[in-house]
Amino acid sequence: MRNILFVSLITLAFSTVAFGYGVGLSTYPLAMDKKIISGEVTGVVSKGGGMGVQARYTQNLNVGTTFDAGMGVSGGDRANRIFAGIDYELFPDYDKQPRTSLKASISNAKEFNYSQNVITLMPTVSKGFSFWGKEGFPYVALPYNVSLNSDTKTYQTSFNFTTGITGRIPVDGYNQLLGQIEASVNVKDSYSGVFFGVSYPLN
User: Fold this and answer.
1) How many other C-beta atoms lie within 10 A of the C-beta of residue 100?
2) What per-residue confidence (pLDDT) applies to 3?
3) Which pairs count as long-range contacts for 120-129, CB under 8 Å and 24+ apart, including other chains?
4) Which of 93, 88, 84, 92 is closest to 66 using CA atoms?
5) What is the CATH number of domain 2-201?
6) Angle at alpha carbon of residue 30, lines to 29 and 31, rounded to 5°
7) 84, 105 in Cβ contact below 8 A?
8) Which of the pair, 160 or 114, is modelled with greater confidence?
């Protein structure tokens, strides 16, 4: 079962054009040296949008530092993207204090027929809660992007408001899997969309 699920996630990720959206598992408390692969369904509903899928590899490097990288496929005018990022915890989720972190990432993309190198800074706040006896981790993030257009030698800034929740899937036999739901709203020159993910631990 585990091998079938792993192969399915890889196949899903490389089945069709590529982009990387979403916060990922940065806000979820991973055990030391934990490695996870995620398959995500993406839907950008603003201009140039479309449905797609992506794969993401996530690893906890040490206490408070998480690395992720991936690529994906999409319809619409936002395509051909690979990405990598580091999330650094500033304050842990402790007692009434929420977890606060800053994530920096870089991606290479082809959007609206232009080649883009995108640098993103993403302050994020999250907090673990119990929902009907199951633990979940809602979060809010404010991604700020600088897109460098290598074709026209210009740059543009953009800004999103993003919110979502991550937790173990509450279905018998699938409790080792993580599920994620996320929504992102365009604030300035960006996109709006919804994202769904399922993650599988590699160790």
Assistant:
1) 15
2) 46
3) 120/85, 120/144, 120/145, 120/146, 122/23, 122/85, 124/23, 124/26, 124/27, 124/87, 124/100, 125/98, 125/99, 125/100, 126/27, 126/93, 126/98, 126/99, 126/101, 127/93, 127/98, 127/99, 128/29, 128/93
4) 88
5) 2.40.128
6) 125
7) yes
8) 160
Q: What is the dihedral of CA 198, 183, 89, 174, to 10 degrees?
A: -20
φ, ψ at 13 (rounded to 5°): -70, -30
How far, in Å, CA of 188 to CA of 145, rounded? 10
DSSP sequence for 87-128? EEEEE--BTTBPEEEEEEEEEEEEETTEEEEEEEEEEEEE--
Asked if the model's pLDDT at residue 17 lies above 70, the reply is: no
Length of the chain: 203
Domain coordinates of the chain in residue numbers? 2-201
pLDDT at 6 over 70: no
Would you state the structure tokens that stand for residue 184, as one six-digit string? 């992102």
DSSP state of 133: T
